[in-house]
Amino acid sequence: MYALVDGNNFYVSCERVFKPMLEGKPVVVLSNNDGCIISRSNEAKALGLKMAEPVFKKKEIIEKNNIVVFSSNYTLYGDMSNRMMKTLQTFSPDIEVYSIDEAFLNLKGIQTNLTEYAKQIKATIQKNIGIPVGIGIANTKTLAKIANKIAKKQNGVFVIDSEQIRDWALKNTPIEGVWGIGRQYSKMLMKSGVNTAFDFTQLDASWVRGKMSVVGQRTRDELLGQPCIAFDTIIRAKKNIATTRAFGKKLSDISIIAEAVATHAVRCAEKLRKQKSVASLITIFIHSDPFSENEKYIYKSLTITISKASNTNHELVKAALNGLKRIYQPNILYKKTGIIVSEISSESYVQGNLFEENNNAQLKEISKITDLLNTRFGKDKVKLAVQGVNKDWKLRQEKLSPRYTTRWDELLKVKG
DNA sequence: TCTGGGGTCCTAGGACCC
DNA sequence: TCTGGGGTCCTAGGACCC
Question: Which nt sits closest to A148, CA to C1'?
């Protein structure tokens, strides 16, 4: 049996840990640049705020109801997530961290009654971390997901351990609530009269295969209690790494855009080094405001091969800026740029280049020391000059909470 | 004024090989 | 009249997830 443990309204719950007076009040957390609503407390949901809705369209509701708004604070959420996962590991060493706020636990060998065990997990997370969680248990991951959704509507725990309960759960799950069935497939399925997860399991397997590929077929099997999605405890190296951001305001000056591009390239290099990888492809894209009614939408991108796969700041920034020069056009108001690195491999087996004298040992050392200094003294304390010192391209983050758990100078202050 | 960011997997079709 | 058969690799696009 597998348990899916999932933090309720995770980002909002993280903020509430340090501001308990927000318990019971409507709270939302915004996306980068304070653009969209990406986490909502139950009270905010009840007021009709939707996921990923642009916040400026809801200004009235927010003001009228005194909804508390936070910019997203990923340093805080990431650290809270790590703490939650560590506590979960004490309940099962066999854990798959699936996302920042959820994990699958393999419950093989647990002797205790599973409902009781889940209640114990829930109480411990609440006590150690302060985050409320929902727990769904079943013999496949897809069913555990469904159990989890039902759990959230009940006391936070739900176990599917018989065919009767499974049928009941499937009949009470709308098709769009099934893990692996998104908007497009839901629309298509509803046209064919499939409205619940149960209806979906009654479809002919080959029909599903034909319309939804092997992925859909697996979902069907999983709903019927046949595990086909592997339980994967290994954290694998990423195959693509991206850093992309909208600017705080529209820009057309290449020198300012270059600062953002260089900084994004450094972020990608850092992420590569962290997972001990190198990349041999780097993609840069830049685009104007897709929502603008007066300006034409411009999108340009370019993928560059790096002759010898790398993860140093210098080499990736150089390639990225080179790319920027080639796709940049003057007199366009740009809104966003991003860097994606791919063709990723392990840094221990780098293929050399026959035609270049490429000894980047020194650059590697510089990147390594930069990482050490920045870990200790803060992000970008040491950086390349091209990353710039002005913040013209930076995000808006007007409602940012302190990084309570990772910076000494931002510790929670308690009045004496 | 204002609309996120970061990932994965699968398939079809084209180019190419012998 | 008729125009092989069997592969691989790559890419773009579409679907999904959080």
Answer: C18
